[in-house]
Amino acid sequence: MTVTIRTLCDTDVDAADAVIVAAYNAPHSRKAALQAYLRLQPDGWMLALQDNEPVGLGGLVNYGPFAYLGMMSVLPAAQGKGIGKQLVSHLLQWAENKKCPTILLDATPAGSYLYKSFDFVEIDRSQHWQHAGVDELTMPSQTNGIVTAISVSDLPSLAAFDTPYFGASRIHVLEAMLGQYPRRAFAVWDTNGQVNGYLFAQERSIGPWVARSMEDAERLLAAALKLPFPGNAISVNISSITNQDAIQLLERYGFKLQRTLSHMRRGPAVERNLRKIYGQTAFALG
User: Fold this and answer.
1) Is the pLDDT of residue 141 over 70?
2) Domain count within the chain
3) Residue 224 and residue 149 share a domain
4) Mean pLDDT throughout 220-234?
5) What percent of the chain has pLDDT over 70?
6) Whole-angstrom Cα distance, residue 64 to residue 59?
7) What is the Cα–Cα distance from 113 to 166, expressed in whole angstroms?
8) Is residue 108 part of a domain?
9) Structural domain for 46, as ranges
């Protein structure tokens, strides 16, 4: 068995998507998401080949103070052969070459054992919530905030608002999200025109979703839930179980907890405020 690892490229996406679907027993293709991730960090995604056949992949998105590792996938038939370990080793070397001091990720219980062998430690828990469908929705009674559609001119203000909570600027992610979902992006503003929060409704999920208060988060959620979602299935990934406001809000709107993951770190601590992040962009992006 010969295993090689190289940088993922555009022509690999179909094969890589097949690996992801098989590895996670996913109900639908992740091709669009993978293409988006590849555009965000073209040199940060690795493909593992066994005898020249794709069997695994994973990637990193570098935010500067930290990078986020995600979408680690190995074909079921190729698992248990050290391929995942080789991928992680390559990705950590990539981060070291980029002088990125800290790596963050969200791991399943099985995956956490692999990451602990690379000196990752659990620092929190993240959660995946899902809603089976929204039939009727009552808008929040408090309407002090002004909810508007996000425009390109709003992005610098949103990025400045977001950075202290996320821990790094991710304006490139916000630009990509607005380009992909131009009619599914909302911001809430106070009466002085200052940002109080924002939300992007993706095709099947909600996030990134960041708000200064639970009330602002609810206004944004109510706006998002009026949009169509395929099969009415909607998911939200909470960055930290310390955000009890997010948990209460999702329960109030009929979301159900599906699974809890280990939020892990390798390297120095990063200053972030996850209590204000109500929904991740994705587990692969934070």
Assistant:
1) no
2) 2
3) yes
4) 90
5) 96
6) 15
7) 26
8) no
9) 3-101
